[in-house]
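RECORD TYPE: inverse folding
INPUT: structure tokens
STRUCTURE:
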């Protein structure tokens, strides 16, 4: 071991042997790694621009990068936080758009959190008539409509049709054609507004045809369903009734199988629920995060090879347990009192949580009936909708929706590998669709000790708009704090229910496809049982006709939703974009991060339907085509020996390489559950999280300035500049932290000096460094590193597991090494080799014509 401590700090670091990639086959161009485009430099430069001034949404400037911390001023165009286009110059014809070879579309995050200095989204109440809408295309009134006929009519900016103005909304016009009440009409000034709506906008009450035929008799017999609407049941063709919005009903379903208890997952889940509902009695600073004051109510159940429902009515002396042992015919046995106010029934809830913590693994069933849980909840909540938060640790081996372990060893790398990422049968997709139609959202905490078939059960979250928090091989010392913070995140962040989304475009444009985690009726109408503030989808745009050069194209995204407190509203995002006749203008206004997000969501949607090499081949070809198009249309006179990349897309190659090295797409062996989890993340991930995931932040901890990461006069801290993702920029005597939004890894070099080891870990020997958790020490370095971890947690909204990796000693070093995406690893090339590959293909295209490159090499 002494050899480890005698490592020369100047010796180049060798990547771990298990992270090997592929090399470029051919003559390499002499490329200096320090001169190639760096995402860290680009992000830092953009942040410097926008740290001192706001972005005005109607300005001709390119919007700030999604990674920048900026303040947007809504002047009529929606902030890029909500809608970000792949280019802010729309080609005037479909042929021109096709020649650009860069996706044309929008990435939409309807409930993105605002910057603290930005104004709140205005709420507009237009009275009983509701918000004015176009009589032809049904678009909502917005800042870009034109008022005609002395204010009696308005002309839609999307379809150019005229609509009458109701008497309650009428206003005279001034000499410029502006309404006299313009100053009081925020919907005519802001690009993003919320409209209060009337009962005609209520969600449809689902028909009973949604339920499994086998569950109908049991549901009717045990009164799990209200059959007051027999007309809808007997005559499905009759227009369904509308469901009045109500405060959210939460169901917490806890897995009490042997694996859940043995790993400590059940105890952590119970502690997280207690802290979320009531805070911590031992720490007054830990406050409850449950949304009080909005009328929300809760219910609990536990399950293994049977289901336990709990009557927590405050009138009882203690919790009453009702057991359903026939999991093949599951139902909710309570007509009432299943849902309770968490404050009124606090004593019973705390007693229940204490009882669950006392369960022992040796007396618990090894079986798990997750499918029967959903089958019981669906009819019971179909009239009201709600939010199910499911904690599960075991493979479904009992009741409905039984899953089996996949034969990964024989399928990985074959043409049938894609079958690992699709549901085992139709039960789980059907349940997901029915929950989505009934307005029942499902968030899942999954903590398996062995494969759990996430490709099947994950459909519940994917189709309802929920999230999956994945903690494989659950370990309390590592995963408890992240689990608690994730549950708090669900409760504290914006959550909207019974969501219906419609994307409309002006004449000449149309939405051709949408990508994300939702239930879709068609390409332009999406439905979510729940939308979190992070929920994001991508919309591809195509031309349905020609647009006049120099004109303006319009996009409107209308999101109909019910707030957590039971208020029905429509959030409208509006965008006006210039139409341009030149390819150069399209590339000059391109937004790389939006294009990357759209491509990543499209690729994630194909996992399970196409083999991974084919998906990655298309991504590389998309990159080559975009650079080739720019080369022949905007820089044809440049020598073929030069690789020309448009300024707006100069980091496209490295981002594309990193995306292909992600766990959702990389070619080396990845457990199917892990790949499915990362696929779900790509589908709904907002752009800032995507960029941090595909190009993680790497920080050097051993040479921080004394005042770095220490609170300033205003109490704020600022993170140091991150590094390039390569061992090339590291030294063996250093300590580094990497963060990709899902895990933090601290790497300790073998030549790290003893004083750094002592100040950070509280030990004097490199070999005694603890694997977890990071000790709390009074030293400056310890405070700085903990401040950095807190800063990163604040930015992402939750804690993540922290791993310690000692050079050449710990398994966690492989995780760290695989995140250094610029190196040759993850069955992929290094950044410099990938640039050589792209350049080689573009030169081939210049010599032999478009489409002549050797795609087989990818």
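DESIGNED SEQUENCE:
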């Amino acid at each position: 071991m002494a050899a480890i401590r005698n490592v020369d700090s100047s010796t180049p670091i060798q990547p771990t042997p298990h992270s090997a990639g592929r090399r470029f086959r051919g003559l390499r161009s002499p490329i200096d790694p320090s001169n190639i485009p760096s995402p860290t430099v680009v992000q830092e430069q953009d942040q410097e621009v926008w740290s001192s001034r706001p972005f005005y949404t109607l300005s001709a400037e390119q919007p700030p990068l999604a990674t920048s911390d900026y303040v947007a001023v809504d002047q009529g165009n929606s902030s890029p936080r909500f809608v970000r286009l792949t280019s802010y110059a729309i080609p005037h014809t479909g042929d021109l758009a096709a020649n650009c070879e860069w996706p044309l579309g929008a990435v939409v995050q309807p409930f993105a959190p605002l910057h603290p200095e930005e104004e709140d989204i205005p709420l507009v109440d237009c009275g009983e008539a509701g918000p004015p809408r176009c009589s032809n295309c049904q678009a909502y009134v917005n800042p870009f409509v034109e008022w005609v006929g002395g204010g009696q009519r308005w002309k839609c900016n999307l379809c150019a049709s005229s609509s009458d103005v109701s008497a309650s909304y009428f206003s005279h016009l001034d000499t410029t054609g502006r309404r006299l009440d313009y100053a009081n009409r925020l919907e005519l000034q802001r690009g993003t507004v919320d409209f209060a709506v009337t009962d005609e906008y209520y969600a449809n009450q689902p028909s009973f045809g949604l339920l499994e035929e086998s569950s109908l008799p049991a549901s009717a017999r045990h009164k799990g369903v209200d059959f007051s609407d027999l007309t809808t049941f007997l005559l499905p063709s009759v227009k369904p009734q509308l469901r009045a919005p109500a405060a959210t009903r939460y169901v917490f379903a806890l897995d009490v199988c042997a694996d859940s208890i043995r790993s400590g997952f059940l105890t952590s889940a119970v502690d997280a629920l207690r802290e979320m509902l009531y805070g911590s009695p031992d720490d007054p600073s830990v406050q409850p995060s449950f949304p009080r004051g909005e009328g929300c109510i809760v219910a609990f159940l536990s399950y293994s090879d049977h289901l336990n429902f709990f009557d927590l009515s405050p009138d009882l002396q203690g919790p009453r347990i009702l057991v359903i042992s026939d999991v093949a015919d599951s139902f909710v046995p309570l007509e009432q009192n299943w849902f309770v106010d968490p404050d009124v029934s606090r004593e019973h809830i705390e007693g229940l949580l204490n009882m669950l913590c006392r369960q022992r693994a040796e007396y618990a069933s090894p079986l798990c009936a997750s499918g029967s849980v959903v089958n019981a909840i669906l009819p019971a909540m179909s009239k009201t909708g709600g939010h199910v938060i499911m904690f599960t640790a075991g493979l479904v081996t009992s009741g409905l929706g039984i899953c089996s372990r996949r034969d990964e060893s024989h399928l990985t790398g074959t043409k049938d590998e894609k079958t690992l990422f699709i549901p085992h049968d139709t039960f789980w997709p059907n349940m997901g669709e029915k929950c989505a139609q009934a307005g029942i959202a499902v968030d899942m905490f999954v903590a398996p000790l062995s494969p759990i078939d996430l490709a099947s059960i994950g459909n519940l979250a994917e189709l309802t708009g929920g999230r999956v928090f994945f903690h494989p091989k659950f370990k309390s010392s590592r995963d408890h704090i992240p689990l608690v913070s994730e549950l708090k995140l669900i409760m504290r962040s914006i959550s909207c229910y019974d969501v219906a989304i419609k994307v409309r475009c002006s004449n000449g444009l149309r939405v051709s496809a949408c990508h994300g985690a939702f239930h879709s009726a068609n390409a332009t109408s999406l439905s979510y049982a729940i939308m979190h503030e992070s929920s994001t989808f991508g919309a591809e745009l195509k031309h349905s006709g020609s647009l006049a050069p120099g004109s303006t194209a319009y996009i409107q995204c209308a999101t109909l939703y019910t707030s957590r407190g039971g208020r029905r509203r429509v959030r409208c995002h509006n965008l006006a974009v210039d139409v341009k006749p030149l390819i150069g203008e399209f590339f000059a206004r391109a937004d790389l991060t939006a294009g990357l997000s759209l491509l990543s969501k499209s690729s994630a949607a194909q996992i399970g339907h196409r083999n991974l090499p084919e998906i990655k081949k298309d991504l590389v070809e998309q990159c080559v085509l975009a650079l080739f198009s720019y080369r022949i249309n905007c820089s044809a006179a440049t020598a073929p020996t030069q690789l020309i990349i448009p300024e707006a897309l100069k980091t496209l190659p490295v981002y594309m390489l990193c995306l292909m090295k992600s766990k959702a797409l990389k070619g080396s062996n990845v457990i199917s559950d892990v790949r499915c989890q990362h696929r779900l993340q790509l589908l709904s991930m907002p752009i800032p999280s995507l960029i941090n995931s595909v190009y993680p932040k790497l920080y050097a901890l051993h040479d921080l300035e004394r005042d770095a990461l220490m609170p300033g006069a205003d109490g704020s801290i600022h993170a140091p500049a991150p590094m390039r993702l390569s061992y090339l920029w590291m030294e063996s005597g250093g300590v580094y932290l990497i963060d990709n939004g899902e895990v933090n890894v601290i790497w300790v070099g073998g030549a790290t000096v003893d004083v750094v080891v002592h100040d950070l870990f509280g030990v004097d020997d490199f070999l005694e460094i603890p694997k977890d958790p990071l000790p709390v020490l009074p030293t400056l370095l310890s405070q700085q590193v903990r401040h950095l971890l807190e800063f990163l947690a604040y930015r992402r909204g939750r804690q993540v597991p922290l791993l310690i990796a000692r050079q050449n000693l710990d398994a966690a070093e492989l995780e760290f090494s695989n995140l250094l995406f610029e190196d040759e690893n993850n069955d992929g090339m290094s950044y410099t080799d990938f640039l050589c590959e792209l350049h080689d293909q573009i030169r081939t295209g210049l010599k032999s014509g478009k489409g002549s490159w050797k795609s087989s090499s990818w």
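NOTES: The two ends are 42 Å apart (CA to CA).
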